[in-house]
Amino acid sequence: MKVLIADDDGQMVRALGLLLRARGDEVIAARDGAEALQAATARHPDVCLVDLGMPKLSGFEVIEGIRAFSAVPILVLSGRTDSADKVRALDAGADDYVTKPFGVDELLARLRALVRRSGHDGAAAPLPEAVVRLGEVSVDVGAHVVERGGVPVRLTPTEWKFLETLVRNAGKLVTRQMLYREIWGTDDVQDTGYLRLYVSQLRRKLEADPAHPVHLLTEQGMGYRLVLEPQE
Hints:
single chain, alpha/beta, Rossmann fold, Arc Repressor Mutant, subunit A, five-stranded parallel beta sheet, 8 helices, 12 strands, 21% strand, Sig_transdc_resp-reg_receiver, phosphorelay response regulator activity, DNA-binding, OmpR/PhoB-type_DNA-bd
């Protein structure tokens, strides 16, 4: 696998490079945003690890630039913990977000999950229906297409996997541990804020009133539930 590491922290780049090369990956290192965007254009990586605070071009600009020509999975590695930065990165086109410092096992699990989803090679249970409707939103699970009022809605691979897991278990409680396993391949995820962030993003894109959701419901302290038809 060809991995682009875009980070101006030389020690971080070296450490990640050693880790990835040890498992057989090819590593492309970029120390600023302009170099990262050029490398992504010329070298066609299979996955990109992008820091947000880089010189010349910010990580946000790099993500937007890559998304202009590629659907390659993008994982943000950043020390920024503000949810606004996470939302901005996801809106720019990032697929997942890991806050520094992070555990090696979690990072590798997220990488595996991103690459697996981008290739659509994960074995999954058959879906009960080809198309699911949530009010004016239609979810074509076979084609991986979501439309709202006939207008396509872009979901990141992580948002799609979150939604797909809920669709496969429509009407049932989906626990946080189940979501961790389905999305990241492990239930050993320490920051539960990631799930809140992604469900917030999905509500903003899919619910008529994100502040008062009727389809993507939170089961406090347990997980989430997808309701296909809102209860009166």
